[in-house]
Every structure is written in C-alpha cells, then in structure tokens.
Design brief:
Blueprint: E1 2-3, E2 9-12, H1 13-31, H2 33-37, E3 41-42, E4 45-46, H3 48-69, H4 75-96, H5 102-109, H6 113-119, H7 125-141, E5 143-145, H8 149-173, H9 175-184, H10 188-191, H11 196-217, E6 225-227, E7 233-240, E8 268-273, H12 279-287, E9 288-289, E10 292-293, H13 294-300, E11 304-310, E12 322-323, H14 340-348, E13 354-361, H15 390-393, H16 396-424, E14 428-434, E15 439-440, E16 446-447, H17 458-461, E17 462-469, E18 473-475, E19 481-482, H18 485-493, E20 496-498, E21 508-510
Parallel strand pairs: 2-5, 7-13, 7-14, 8-19, 11-12, 11-13
Antiparallel strand pairs: 1-2, 3-4, 6-20, 8-17, 9-10, 14-17, 15-16, 18-21
Helix pairs in contact: 1-3, 1-4, 3-8, 4-7, 5-11, 14-16
C-alpha cells in the first residue's frame, strides 16, 4: 500500500480483499460474539479453540466468496453493498436477537415500506455510521490496483485455494465441537455469523425461488425397464430417522425398547449399514441409483406407487408426489404414526398386482430435543432430558432415557404398520431401515454427521434393518446389508429388469 498524489492510497486487490474481509468480519461479529460463543461449551467454560476454529472457517468462506466476485468493475460496489447489509444484519441480531436464515431473507424481500419504517429507529444510526458509512467512504477513496487479468485471477485463485485449505483444516480439527454447536443451537450459530449468514441465506432463497423454473426446463429422467413377470405383491418401504442398532433390544440392548417387535414371529433382524450421516444425502442412498429415483422407476413400469410422509423426502418422490397426514391425533401435532391411516386407506383399495408404498417416518429419533419426537404416553424411561442443550443441561442417563423413548415409539409405529399389513390381507413384503444412526457422546460426539472423507462411527453407521413378509421369501446371508442394496431389492421383488438393476445386490427374493 502506498500514498497516491491525490487523497487516498494505492492498494493491490489481494491486500484490499484480505483487509476488507478481515475488518468487516471482525467488527460486525465482535458486536454479537456472545451470542455465538454461548454454544461452544467445555463444561462451564467456553471451548475457545472450537470457537476459534469455527470463526476461522467462517472467515475463510467469506474470503472465498468475496474473491470469487471481486473484479475491477465489481470490487467497490460489492464491498459497499456488503458493508451496509452487514451493518443492518448486525443491528437486527443485536437489537432483536433474530436469526438471518432463508425465511428471514424472503420475508425481507416481501416486506413493504410501512413495515420497514416500523423496524428502523435512531438506534440503528451508530451501526450504519461506524460499520457502513465511514468504511464505505474509505473504500471509495482507495485506488485498488489489479494486475493483468491472468495474473490477478491466478492470485485470487491461489488465495481462494489457501483459504479453502485453512477453512477445511479448522473444520476437521474441531468438527465434533462445531457440529455440536450447530446442532444444539439449531443452526443459530450459522444464522448469526455476519456476513456468512445472509450470503448463505440469500443463495438458498434464490435457489428455492428459481427451483420450479429449472424443474420446468429440465430434461425429464427416463427409466428404461420392464416387468418380466406379473404377480400379486405389495412392497412397503419404511424409512426411519436417526435410529441406531445399539439401542434396539432386538440387537441385544439391555433395556426393553422393543416390546412390540420382539413378539412378532418371522421378523428378520439384519445388520444394516449407512454411509452418510445426513438425511438430505442419506435418503438418495436408499432411493436413488444412477440418477433415477426408486418411485420413478416403479411408477414408470406401471406399478401403483405412493409416498406417505411425516417430514419430507425432499425430491426423492417427485414422480408421484408426497402425501402428508391431514388429521393428526395428538391435538393437531403430527407424529410418525399419523402416516398409518394413509397406508390403511391405500391397502383398502388393493385387489391384485404389484403395489409400492414408501413411508417416511421422519420424526424418528432426531435430536437435539428427543422428547419432541414421540407423544407424552411414550415417556417411559425416566429421568428424561427435555432441554435442547443436552450436553450441558442433561446427564448421560437422561440423554439415553430420552433417546430410548424414541426407539420405544419407533417400535410401536413399526409394529402398528406390520399389524396394518397383516389385517389388510394383502400379500406383502415390509422393509424398515433408518437413514443413519446417532452419537450419544461416544468419544465426545453428539448427534450425527461427519465431514467428507471420514467414515461414520459405529453408532451412526450401524442401523436397524427389519424385514417381515406374508409370502415365502429368501434372504441372502451377508455380513452387512448396505442401504444401497435396498434399491435393487425392491426392483427384484417386482421382477423389474433394467440397466439400473444389479441382481447381485438384491438380498430379498420371493419364492415363486
């Protein structure tokens, strides 16, 4: 940096980018650092190394974003826009304790002038002056120099690569603590980190707004397959949420968490395995192969297909659409059992042929508030943890009891589904598995999810996989049954042949 003949300084774009990103990031987040730090606990103290790793990660992501858009004709307008948006975000977080998420961004876009005026006050002026106006004047006065296109772009790319390496190193070094803070705060630490919060949320809001447009113009996926043999069979695939083998009595757990399922004759208990500890990415492990969703495959060959959900399957059932419960039996609160009447109505119309039903029992055993996942009458194991901050406000016994009650409820729901199938009289094969498991402070981990390249720990990897059938079947003996095998198993049960189908991966065959 050096003085120019006129007022101001000359500064290279890389130095400016580093200084601007650092000063904006530090100044704005210093105002609300207590709101972020409170979620990084180490006993009664703040886990400072984890907090530092999280802040470094956020800084690196912001730097990458800025460098990506910082060019000779955009760098000053971009910087000024970020200054004013960051100042506004910091003010509203500080004054109203809001979280800047996608819904907040979309609400802001649709807010009229009257509502905006009502939110503004003289208290906002210091934030705007100190965090936006004065810095913006300085930015305007600076002479930001760029080298020839090739050189400045290479410098930007190099700096972005370095920031990526540093950010990922910080994430991997303290992943468990960062993941814990994100989950305990229900992503509040993400929605409070300026300007990462409104950048992330704006991208998400834009993506959500444009999604229908891209779907309309997207080439339809075509499934080339055929049914080689007609038969009478209903296949019901129930996908649970965050339930792990370790707490199922069926797998040897000490507590009687499976009083219903343990009494069902002919229930096959298999060693299920998951690869990914996130519902968004775990569902395609079960329901997608070669970019073809399983409901699309079955419906494309003329099989009556339906998806009944408590919590969305995301886009995995777009071919036939999702149906949610409209009447929920606990004062309007929906639980997983409320998809069963939908299944019952579906089975009432069954006469013959193939039929496929996907159930998403999306309540399951998801944390951090395990007690929200089951009705009050399933609060059997006590004392329970009712605080979302399970790590600092609850004992290990309370955490386990609350989680075990979710398994007790899963047992009830899955048992009721099987009973519904039995009462229908339809020939069926029923498969239940979870999307992934859950860590309950094993090796200091809580909840679920691991960064790319690191395999899931056993408590997240080992999932229940249950099979019940009213028709003669053969189950292939394997050391482990991976989620991806379910896709081929369903195609095999329906005698569907296609390029997508791999018979070797199927583990259930109907005895003809």
């Amino acid at each position: 940096m050096k003085m120019t003949n006129k007022f101001g300084f000359q500064i290279s774009h890389t130095v400016f980018s580093l200084l601007f990103v650092s000063l904006l990031y530090i100044a704005n987040n210093a105002v609300n650092i207590d709101k972020i730090a409170q979620w990084f606990h180490a006993g009664n103290d703040i886990h400072y190394t984890a907090l530092a790793a999280y802040l470094i990660l956020g800084w690196c992501l912001f730097l990458i974003f800025f460098l990506l858009l910082a060019h000779p004709w955009t760098i000053k307008p971009l910087a000024i826009v970020l200054l004013f948006l960051s100042a506004a975000a910091t003010y509203f977080i500080d004054k109203y304790n809001v979280a800047i998420d996608r819904s907040m961004v979309m609400n802001t876009v649709h807010t009229d002038a009257t509502e905006v005026t009502g939110l503004l006050s003289a208290q906002m002026l210091p934030y705007l002056v100190l965090l936006a106006v004065i810095p913006a004047i300085i930015v305007l006065k600076l002479d930001i120099r760029f080298q020839r296109s090739g050189k400045y772009l290479l410098k930007s790319l190099g700096l972005m690569a370095l920031a990526f390496v540093i950010g990922m190193s910080a994430l991997y070094a303290k992943f468990d603590s960062i993941s814990q803070a994100v989950n305990l705060s229900r992503k509040y630490v993400v929605h409070t980190l300026v300007p990462v919060n409104f950048i992330r949320s704006s991208i998400s809001a834009t993506s959500r707004t444009l999604e229908p447009y891209f779907k309309q113009h997207k080439e339809p996926v075509v499934f080339n397959g055929k049914v080689t043999r007609q038969d009478d069979l209903v296949v019901v695939l129930a996908i649970g949420e965050t339930s792990r083998q370790k707490n199922f009595a069926l797998y040897g757990y000490g507590k009687n968490t499976n009083p219903v399922l343990s009494q069902i004759d002919g229930l096959a208990v298999l060693d299920g395995k998951a690869r990914i500890g996130s519902t968004l990415y775990a569902l395609p492990e079960i329901l997608e192969k070669n970019d073809i969703k399983l409901p699309l495959a079955t419906s494309s060959v003329g099989i009556d297909t339906a998806c009944y959900v408590n919590y969305s399957l995301y886009d995995n059932c777009d071919a036939v659409g999702e149906i949610e419960p409209t009447e929920c039996g606990h004062d309007g609160v929906c639980y997983d059992e409320d998809v069963i009447p939908l299944l019952k109505d579906n089975l009432a119309s069954y006469q013959q042929g193939y039929r496929f039903v996907v159930l998403h029992l999306g309540g399951g055993s998801h944390g951090p508030s395990y007690s929200d996942r089951y009705p009050p009458e399933f609060q059997i194991f006590k004392p329970m943890c009712t605080d979302a901050d399970v790590v600092n406000q609850c004992t290990l016994e309370q955490i386990y009891n609350s989680y075990d009650n979710t398994i007790l409820y899963v047992d009830y729901v899955v048992g009721k589904i099987i009973d519904t199938l039995e009462q229908s009289g339809a020939p069926y094969v029923f498969i239940y598995l979870s999307d992934h498991g859950e860590s309950l402070l094993e090796n200091g981990r809580i909840f679920h999810g691991m960064p790319p390249g690191i395999p899931l720990p056993p408590e997240q990897r080992d999932i229940p996989l249950l099979v019940k059938s009213s028709v003669p079947i053969e189950i292939t003996e394997k050391d482990a049954y991976w989620q991806q095998d379910v896709y081929d198993t369903v195609l095999d049960l329906f005698c569907i042949e296609s390029e997508t189908f791999d018979k070797q991966d199927s583990f259930i065959r109907k005895v003809r």
